Amino acid sequence: MPEIDPARRASQVASALAEVRARLDRACDDAGRDRADVQLLPVTKFFPASDAAILYGLGCREFGESREQEATAKVAELADLLASAGTGEGADAVRWHMIGSLQRNKARAVARWAHAIHSVDSVRLVDALSRAASAALAEGERPEPLRVLLQVSLDGDPARGGVRGHELTELAARTEDADGLELAGLMAVPPLGADPERAFEALAGVHRDLLREHPRATALSAGMTGDLEAAVRYGSTCVRVGTALLGSRPITSY
């Protein structure tokens, strides 16, 4: 891939971010919702820390990653970039979200840097994260409990991740009671080829049911580049956008 000029890249990202913010503004207006109630989470997976630094300079403070090894390195690299740039803010000004599937043996590493994890779908993972987050809190590696969003399966396909509706009650209760964790809400991805409207409508119903037992679990992570408008209509509080901000392929050289 040809080398890309840093100034040109910064201009590209700034333009893309402005377009996505305007799009999200329109989606909230159309849905009659307060824009402040819907977070735009830039997804920086597969892209370099320098792109996250550009987004940081444009006001973004939270980022989504999906692979532990890549994210752990990027967290450290962005902290170095911000320090060298003299932003006046430390690495603790940034909040990182783990949005991809997570193996239990990676829980300890993720608990050191993640503000939230959006993809919890098993009791065993809850238990692993509880141990990891509790240890990180005790050792001063994190300032607050790890926010947990339970991933809901909208098609029952275990290969795509997510817990099915009848299993959610037990998982939510286990998370609520777990040391070091905070039950924040739900996350879901529409099934491949599905109508996003119907998928997000179903998710909204599941979320309403959850809130009856867990009224503080108000977060709903739903919607990406192709379907954020539908997600906002059905109550999403966090849209995860990567392609519309950074492009469809990784930028590997500058």
Note down, in words, how this protein is organized.
The protein is α/β, with parallel strands linked by helices and 254 residues long. It has one domain (6-246): Alanine racemase (TIM Barrel, Alpha-Beta Barrel), CATH 3.20.20. The chain contains nine helices and eight strands. It has helices at 6-31, 49-57, 68-85, 107-113, 123-138, 165-177, 196-213, 228-233, 243-246, and strands at residues 39-42, 62-65, 95-98, 114-120, 146-151, 181-187, 219-221, 238-241. It has a six-stranded parallel β-sheet with strand order 2-3-4-5-6-7. A two-stranded parallel sheet has the order 1-8. Strand 4 (114-120), helix 5 and strand 5 form a beta-alpha-beta unit. Helix 2 packs across helix 3 and helix 5 packs parallel to helix 6. The radius of gyration is 18 Å and the shape is globular. The mean pLDDT is 93.
Short description:
Helices cover 46% and strands 15% of the residues. The protein is built from nine helices and eight strands.
Topology record:
Layout (H helix, E strand, L loop, with lengths): L5 H26 L7 E4 L6 H9 L4 E4 L2 H18 L9 E4 L8 H7 E7 L2 H16 L7 E6 L13 H13 L3 E7 L8 H18 L5 E3 L6 H6 L4 E4 L1 H4 L8
Parallel strand pairs: 1-8, 2-3, 3-4, 4-5, 5-6, 6-7
**Order of H and E elements:** HEHEHEHEHEHEHEHEH
Give, in spatial order, the strands making up the sheet with the most strands.
2-3-4-5-6-7
What form results from the Cα inertia axes? globular
In DSSP terms, counting alpha (H) and pi (I) runs of 4 or more, how many helices? 9
Structural category is: alpha/beta
